[in-house]
Design brief:
Layout lengths: L2 E5 L5 H10 L3 E5 L3 H8 L10 H10 L3 E4 L2 H5 L4 E4 L14 H12 L5 E5 L7 H13 L6 E5 L9 H6 L3 E6 L2 H10 L6 E5 L1 H32 L3 H9 L20 H14 L5 H25 L6 E5 L14 H11 L3 E5 L4 H7 L4 E2 L3 H5 L4 E4 L11 H7 L4 E4 L6 H6 L3 E3 L8
Parallel strand pairs: 1-2, 1-4, 2-3, 4-5, 5-6, 7-8, 9-10, 9-12, 10-11, 12-13, 13-14
Antiparallel strand pairs: 6-7
Helix pairs in contact: 1-3, 5-6, 9-11, 9-12, 12-13
The structure holds uridine-5'-diphosphate-xylopyranose (2 copies).
The site of one uridine-5'-diphosphate-xylopyranose has 23 residues, from helix 5.
Length: about 425
């Protein structure tokens, strides 16, 4: 059992700290956002993540987990300090490291004992050395002995707790192998594969993994667009491809493309690192272009079906970037809504968890309380995020509420034949007849 602190209580930091506590460690989670810490102290979750509240409550109750805004309190007796603050993209795609710098500096200013600093945040290759420089520069040579270990996260939002507790692998990188081994001990109870390598390689594994997953999705979306012109069904193409063990079935679902706080940021950051180091990320650029064009493709389909979108009403089901999260960062749904609004359409939408943030991001969006209100007087209905509750709707009721009959199934979750028989004008993504 170790004493550790986690800096940053977002989707990554809060899950990381809570799961370490659940494994028996003593954890203090720090955030500079006082409101967030006050919510957590009152048992209110600042984010929606299935199953998280239950294990937060259990571990707070057991005295293994607490929350603070004070660095001295968080660092007291901590053998490890995990940095899990945001690393959002700058305009040119470079990762914004200001928060990592702020966290590293705050650690340095309050450090009075040896510690292992663990980069959990997704940080550009070489950052581990940079964090060490920050701490050395701030404290000069009197810095207590410390090491930096890269420990990138592979958590998917909506299944983050499970992904932490049942990882395919734990990746660690450091110039100090003893430090890496001590971090590895924290994960022993998970009995998963643990890979120890150098700092830069560990940081690169994170970027390369996300970029490859994003590439699979852009690949199948390009296949979807080709399937539409050739009359093939991309869902069956993906099924047939996935039977090849070298390909596998995962991450081959065609649709509106990827969003979230990771793929867009990490692919852009990797491409930026390549460009600034005189290499040409041709494939990464294509992966990003295909992904963005999927959003435009959906708007084009609606325009083909409805004609001029000005004055039309479009209902949108799902606003978060994927199901089972309230996160709307780079959500395909919100990007499409912005495009529709720019063309003069009226947009009404509903999401089980992401209503508040969506309204903040797209003020023109009219919020509805359920899918049937979204259909009310709509000329077209767009399924943008495949929440389970949208998979078995009462389509008689949907049809009765709608003014038009156009249905664009952005994530290919509905039975197109059935809907056509009911009189809907059904489009999917990469399904025959979808043009
Ligand atoms: C983010 C990225 O999504 C992920 O790819 C990366 O690996 C880690 O950073 P996430 O948890 O989604 O993970 O970040 P976010 O939801 O933005 O939360 C960051 C938290 O850090 C916020 O609560 C913020 O208040 C806090 N923070 C930020 C600090 O505590 N100190 C700072 O100096 C800056
Ligand atoms: C991703 C990585 O999976 C995770 O390992 C990393 O730590 C963080 O980034 P996340 O972004 O939370 O996780 O969700 P994920 O399930 O990977 O979906 C990412 C995006 O791809 C979503 O917008 C989703 O809708 C889309 N997607 C996913 C597809 O369009 N098709 C697919 O087959 C799978």
């Amino acid at each position: 059992m170790a004493k550790l602190c986690v800096i940053g209580t977002g989707y990554v930091g809060l899950v990381t700290g809570t799961c370490f506590a659940d494994m028996g460690h003593r954890v203090t989670c720090l955030d500079i956002n006082e409101e967030r810490i006050s919510m957590l102290k009152n048992g209110i979750m600042p984010i929606y993540e299935p199953g998280l509240k239950q294990i937060v409550d259990q571990n707070v109750e057991a005295g293994r987990l607490d929350f603070t805004t004070s660095y001295p309190e968080a660092l007291k007796d901590s053998e490890f300090a995990f940095i899990a603050v945001g690393t959002p993209s700058n305009d040119d795609g470079e990762a914004d490291m200001q928060y990592v710098k702020a966290a590293s500096s705050s650690i340095a200013k309050n450090l009075d004992h040896p510690i292992i600093i663990v980069n959990k945040s997704t940080v550009p290759v070489g950052t581990g050395d940079w964090v060490a420089e920050i701490i050395h520069d701030l404290n000069g040579q009197v810095t207590p002995q410390f090491s930096v270990v890269s420990n990138p996260e592979f958590l998917r939002e909506g299944s983050a707790v499970m992904d932490f507790m049942k990882p395919d692998r734990v990746v660690l990188g450091s110039t100090d192998s003893d430090a890496a081994n001590r971090v590895a001990e924290l994960y022993q109870a998970l009995r998963s594969d643990i890979m120890i390598t150098d700092l830069r390689t560990a940081e690169m594994i994170k970027y390369a993994s996300n970029a490859f997953l994003a590439t699979r999705i852009s690949f199948i979306n390009e296949m979807a667009n080709i399937c539409e012109t050739l009359g093939a069904d991309v869902r069956e193409v993906a099924r047939g491809m996935g039977m090849d063990k070298r390909i596998g079935p995962a991450f081959l679902d065609a649709g509106l493309g990827w969003g979230g706080s990771c793929f867009p940021k990490d692919v852009k950051a990797l491409a930026h690192m390549a460009v600034t180091h005189d290499t040409h990320p041709q494939l990464l650029q294509a992966v990003m272009d295909i992904n963005f064009n999927q959003r435009k493709h959906a708007v084009d389909k609606l325009e083909k079906a409805l004609g001029d979108l000005k004055g039309k009403t479009i209902g949108v089901l799902g606003l978060s970037f994927k199901p089972n999260t309230d996160d709307t960062r780079y959500s395909p749904s919100l990007d499409i809504i912005n495009m529709l609004v720019a063309k003069g359409a009226t947009v009404q939408g509903y999401d089980p968890q992401a209503m508040k943030t969506s309204k903040e991001e797209v003020p023109e969006l009219n919020l509805c309380q359920n899918p049937y209100d979204v259909a009310q007087d709509a000329d077209a209905l767009l399924l943008a995020t495949e929440w389970n509750e949208f998979k078995s709707l009462d389509f008689d009721r949907i049809k009765a509420n709608m003014r038009g009959n156009v249905v664009l199934d952005g994530r290919n979750i509905w039975n197109g034949e059935e809907l056509q028989e009911m009189g809907f004008f059904y489009f999917g993504m990469g399904i025959p007849g979808s043009l």
